[in-house]
Amino acid sequence: MLRAPWLPFGGCVRPAASQGLGLKRWRGRQSVAAAAGGNALRRRWRSDVAEGGTKWLKPAGRDSGIQIYNSLSRRKEPLVLGNADVVTWYSCGPTVYDHAHLGHACSYVKFDIIRRIITKIFGKEVVMVMGITDIDDKIIKRASEINISPVTLARFYEEDFKRDMKALKVLPPTISVRVTENIPQIIAFIQQIVNSGHGYATSKGNVYFDICSWGDRYGKLKHIYVDAEEEPVDSDKHHAKDFALWKAAKPEEICWDSPWGKGRPGWHIECSTISSLVFGQHLDIHTGGIDLAFPHHENEIAQCEAYHQCQQWGNYFLHSGHLHVKGSVKMSKSLKNYITIKDFLKKSSSDQFRMFCLRSGYKSAVEYTDESMSDAKNILQIISSFMSSANAYMKGQLTCDVVREDVLWERLSHTKEVIKAACADDFDTPRAVGAIMDLIHHGNRQLKAVTKEAASPRSAVVFGAIISYIQEFLNTTGITLDETQVAPEHGHSAMLSSVIDELVSFRIQVRDFALATAEATDKPAEGVVSSKEAKQQQEKRRQLLQEREPLLQACDRLRQDLAVYGINIKDRSTTSTWELGEPIKELEKS
């Protein structure tokens, strides 16, 4: 890939000749501007999915078995793939000028869950391309404020973003492309739009997309009311709603040479070029937050279809809902109501945030509150507790009444069907999580502990199958229940588990030793015949019990102390087990 060097602050770069998307090939294409005619500049029009060229076209190919809400058609459509086994996917990436916040995290995690479902449940290979906006007004402004070069700022926050995504367990894109490494290709892309009659250069060195030339094809994602006679104020645009393809350079601003003078790309053209470089004129899925639907994605569509001269460039547009805090429209830097990903992960885990995301549909706006995060944590704790109890039962550490295996096998089969159907229905993760919790409810009903040994054979296999499926679902959605606050940081999770096993085993021996004396005081010693000797024996054992009472108290204190760190010991009828839970936050703060 051709790279153009950076110059700090001022100075222009002369890019090498374009590769991949050549000017000669573009200039050979026929113009589609004539269809608009001169009247297009004087009429008023409204776009609609039912009018003209804005109607969604069902792509040719093979049905994936997934119904997906398509922002282009504004309804659920079958996901039809040109290649039956591969999904081509473009994701708008970050503008790297500051730390990412939970609003960004919510969108990326939700689409990561969808990507995992498509791959692991439906068996499709996903080729995902993400564009990295590393030149932008915000980057230039921030770099100037802290007196560093834009390239230094952009590279720092790009790596910071990648670390945040890794901490959230978001799978990396197949290909990640920086805008500044594709300036020649972007210039060539713009030139073709100008050649086709849908773009124009001004005397100031700016290049704009001509909205009126596109007719009623503009507005596929949002109904747009355009007044062609509306005049822009203090601008060199022909029309107020025309948008920038190329921005003329300002003094002391980083720039590149182009046929229209020194400048840099507009925001929308960057994604269009990057996607076309990899996928050409057809794209299966395009994703981003709902705030990107207009104007960003709308303008991408216009640019790509003007360049490729096609009726439909992207087949499916998916948009995630806003994450907002109580009393606010959304979480954003501009509103200064955001929580950075780093700050969030100091108090909560990526699993907890992922469960928070799973509990709402990806299209839905979701409110971030302490209560909603607490609900997500509780669900994970319920799942973890059930799996711990089921494991204890399988190992013979938990004694139960007769287990209705037929009921559990039926519930497991039903759960699998519900989850597959939910995932095929526009990735309905709330319904899938509900099915898992219902399965756990039925499992817990069968795991009611009893104090005496059951005469019937154990039903370990069915619980093993349930545990295996729950783990499979969690892995599919990117959740790993074996995380702790300590183990992932130091990579010693296996060692930590072994240490806790030994500690709990030692506590069992101590506790059994202390309780053995307590049980002996409940009945007279064998062979004792006189009441005097019986009283002496009982007194002796009472003294032993009193002496060993501190051992039981120490066992209780150990259980309480470990709970502070999220290690929960459960005393069963004949043994003890442990599981990882949440550390007690209040004690951490004191």
Automatic annotation (TrEMBL):
SUPFAM superfamilies: Anticodon-binding domain of a subclass of class I aminoacyl-tRNA synthetases, Nucleotidylyl transferase. Its cofactor is Zn(2+). Gene3D superfamilies: Cysteine-tRNA ligase, C-terminal anti-codon recognition domain, HUPs. Its EC number is 6.1.1.16. It holds the Pfam family tRNA-synt_1e. Keywords: Aminoacyl-tRNA synthetase, ATP-binding, Ligase, Metal-binding, Mitochondrion, Nucleotide-binding, Protein biosynthesis, Zinc. The keyword Iron-sulfur does not apply. It is an enzyme of class 6 (ligase). This is Probable cysteine--tRNA ligase, mitochondrial.
